[in-house]
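Posting here for the record, re: zinc ion.
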Amino acid sequence: MNEERYYPGKGCQCYAHSEYECACNVDWTEPEVYELRDEVKELKKWKEAIEKLFEICGLNAIEFKDIMTNKINLDVFKAQQSEIDKAQIEFNNATLDLIKDIYKTLIIGFLLLIILMLVTWGYLTYTYFNH
Ligand SMILES: [Zn+2]
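Prediction output follows.
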């Protein structure tokens, strides 16, 4: 490709509409073809790199796929586990709050009972000594 933007038939001097009409011997290849060729070259490099990686790991593509699938499953499992842990902590905190409330109620009830007993005792002593 040249300095200016490429187009099919670039440099044609005979006003042709296609390669078949043209007598200038210029390039009529579609730009997409060049783009796809570059892409194929790039993909081949990636393929070679990945194959090399498999070779180093002693794996084939199917084994690698299995490992990645297992890893993804493990990640999902870990995420679920952390949700369960969170729920467990929330439940524990709620239970603790409930126990605190129960103790508070019991203490208040106990104090009220003592006051009631004192009042009753006071009343009985009062009536006993004043009849
Ligand atoms: Zn031409």
